Amino acid sequence: MEEQKTIAKDFFLEGKGLQTGKSVKAFFYPEKENEGIIFRRTDLEGGTSVRLKDLSILDTDRRSKIGFGQGNYVETVEHVLAALWGAGIDNIRIELDGSEMPALDGSAVGFLEAIKKSGIRKQSAPREVVEIKEPLWAEDEKSFLGIFPSNAFKVSYLLEYPSPAIGRQFFSSVLDPDLFQKEIAPARTFCLKEEAEALLKQGYGRGADLENTLVMDTDGPMDNTLRFADEPVRHKVLDLIGDLYLLGRPIKARVIAIRSGHRLNLELVRKVMVGLCR
Asked: What is the pLDDT of residue 19?
């Protein structure tokens, strides 16, 4: 039996939000067993805690946004959730003085390192694992995301971008904490050079810069160096892991993704949630 885990001591991280560009401090606290993952906005008077076990997914455009509406939400949670999955954390409270988690370097590695530095404490309650009993999927004209019964957590992702710097990339592996730390957590968020200006006009990426985002030109990232030859597809896998951890517990399944993004990821999470509530 695998036990639940929390962090051994509290810590905080600070930076600017990737989408809003606003400075934010995020404080991480140990939480009791069976409490789950909790977000709380300290800048909102009377703000309600957002608990993954009873969350509402509000938006999926360019990032994952959760909460209860009326301004009580937290956005861009996928990178920290991926890090929590990689560290095996089940119970934690994250309090932040803004709407968006800090971007750090655009990957999950800063969150993961801080969690491990704080220490990880085992708890007595058994860890709950989501086991997929039947195939579930979400799709549109160009993308597909399916989840199937399996004895392990394996993800296969096909990424295709109309840019010679990205093109077609494929990643497939059984995922475990060691592989995540070495092969997935360091992968940074990215966008195409020609997308950057349009995203700003739409109100996104106000905190993006060349330190936290790979801006892909025709021959590679601008003023930056790839950590992996296929870093973009690895970041897509990172996002998928974080989005699936919105379930608040690890999942045992075979996952196949073709050009999937946050919208399909969270559509599938909703379908899994419906199954858990039956």
From this structure: 85
Q: Which of 40, 62, 235, 262 is flagged as catalytic?
A: 262
Tokens representing 54 are: 């009873």
Q: pLDDT digit string (tens) for 119-129?
A: 999 999 999 99
Could you tell me the sign of the dihedral formed by the alpha carbons of 111, 198, 244, 29, in that order?
Answer: positive
Structural domain spans, the chain = 3-126, 130-276
262 is catalytic: yes
CA distance 155 to 254: 6
CATH architecture of 130-276: 2-Layer Sandwich (3.30)
Task: Give the distance from CA 90 to its chain's centroid.
Answer: 15
Give the global pTM.
0.94
The superfamily in CATH containing domain 3-126 is: lpxc deacetylase, domain 1 (3.30.230.20)
